Amino acid sequence: MPYVPHTGKDIEEMLQAVGAKSLDDQFRTIPEDIRLKSLLNLPSGLSEQELTAEMKKLAGNNVTVDDHISFISAGAYNHYIPSVVNHTLLRSEFYTSYTPYQPEISQGTLQAIFEYQTLICQLTGMDAANASMYEGASATAEAVLMAGRINNRKKVVVSSALHPEYREVVSTYLKTRQVTIEEIMHCTEAGMTLPEAVERHIDEETSCLVIQQPNFFGCLEDLKALGELVRKNGAIFIVVISEPVSMGLLKSPGELGADIVIGEGQSLGIALSFGGPYLGFFATREKFMRQMPGRLVGETTDKDGNRGFILTLSTREQHIRREKATSNICTNEGLCALAATVYMCMLGKKGMMELARLNLSKAEYLKKGLQGIKGVKLSFNAPTFNEFVIEVDRNPEELLKALSDKGIWGGISMKRFYPHLDRHILLCATEMNTKEDMDKFVKAMQERQSLFTG
Questions:
Q1: Per the domain annotation, does 271 fall within a domain?
Q2: What is the number of structural domains in the chain?
Q3: Under a CB-based contact definition with an 8 Å cutoff, are residues 157 and 210 in contact?
Q4: The pTM is what?
């Protein structure tokens, strides 16, 4: 909406309408001794040209992955975005579309969401997907709430290898709900959640088990074995995917027994953008569909038999009785969902597989190069996708700072999330990391002492 200042006549008419003699008269209910008596200490206004120059100057202070060689991940991944994605998003019919309450004038938006839902179902191996959510962390929390609605149980079991920030969001959502959260420690050698550890926690009071695949350490979990344990006790098996590109190689969670699959869709054509906006995807089995939060777009026919689209499921209190509402989630990340749709359509099944193989091979090349360095070793022995953890022989924060000064973002210190992993770094390689990038990083790690001496 453009900003149009009120004219003097506008102000006079509004004051008459509210029964005030002047603008100051509007504040007569505020005690005199606490009112500001002088003008705000603000600089004078800028012309459009001056403002544009100032904003460019401020934007120039930002440092992005275009300026550094980056091996950072932990739920936000540096992938190439084909130009067609942004060109589609910037078309006015998509860019200006809003909530599709009126299907007769929202067919394009509804169809785009329907296609997105279809692609998410194909990716995850599930029966139904909603119209998207805010991001992966809140989608995880909503999945836990959904599990509680399905079986009315009060114990949630979560792997410690689930993204720590996702765990924090789940804990916040459940804070007032008399729900117990039990955390399963990951195996310190394998870096994965062991089925025998899960078996000790899962019982008839368990509402759900939450597992990330690949997990926060980049390690692959044994979803099939874990799913069997969950089903044996009648609980809900929730699988979180923060790196959906991995699904180009791995069996889908649906094939391995998941009941609810959620995650972060940022890898699917959405820029890093300093942390957002991102895209939460949410899919489930058909029998649980009515407990799913958010919206679901369905396909129908009009009175003339033409194909059409409509909001089939909208379970917020504005649509149905409050006691039947599944969530306060009412909208979806429309442009982000469209970006993911265009991205997945452009790649197709074959392209997604090729991209996943490329990510795996890049990570294995980097892993092999780092393994040969004295004072650097792999932390876990489980198979990985494009992320893995290394242990170094000095303070990782100091090392990462020194690398950054040389134009390399060498990963994330694990101490921030796991205090006992105080010498460990999580790093990642994607298709954006060239052989030259990785060789430069390996060489810097080989000669890391020189980073501090000159």
A1: yes
A2: 2
A3: yes
A4: 0.88
